[in-house]
Fold these 2 entries.
Entry 1:
Amino acid sequence: MQFGRVIGVDFGTKKIGIAIADPLRIFSQPVGTYPQEEALKVIERINRDEGLATIVIGWPFEEDGKEGKATQRVQEFINRMKKLWPDADFVKQDERYSSEKAKELIKASERPSMKSGGRGRIDTAAAGLILQDHLDESSF
């Protein structure tokens, strides 16, 4: 097992949701939603403070399972991150329906109002779901 933290990233053209796995890599915890440049600074801070082992990024397949324009944008962002953190592993995690699942979880929570955090809450929750899916698939 590589040392360092595992983070989840939900890429959006305007905002990026970030989640982090606990040190035992059992569950994901929300970090927040940020504009692209600020998100990179947050990831760098995690790398500096705790090290980065793996970056799990949502891979936006189209409904039929094919790659499209959205996957091209995410790949460009991955390429940028690989230059910043060449020692980290990068995992593409199918993110179809992660935003819808995140909306459902938020609505079912104690504070169902979408006004409290709005889209940022959804992006952060989606990052957490993407990461949790990876953690669940990787557990033994």
Note: Helices lie at 36-50, 69-84, 98-108, 118-138.
Entry 2:
Amino acid sequence: MASQVIKRFVPLFNRILVERTEPLKKTVGGIILPDNAAQKINWGTVIEVGSGKFNQQTGKVTPLSLKKGDAVMLGEFSGQKVKVNDKELLVVNEEDVLGVIEFDKK
């Protein structure tokens, strides 16, 4: 089983699957940055979302506020790494997401 490749991963409950964004290797001016100078980026894109958080008192599931395609900021040590189709992704609790990022469209 250890040699099998995970084809798809669907997070459960209040977890999300995030593809971390790679740090920039080149500045806007074209200067190539070495690995130790590249800024560590703690954000990524939501790939999959779980069904929601289960409330034991009411017995109901509260849907997540995040959706596929959202750009999110993560805590520095958030998530559990999982390899899906040779991509390293993170499984993160929704509570560990610091916020949703909106980019300036130029």
Note: The longest strand covers residues 43-49.
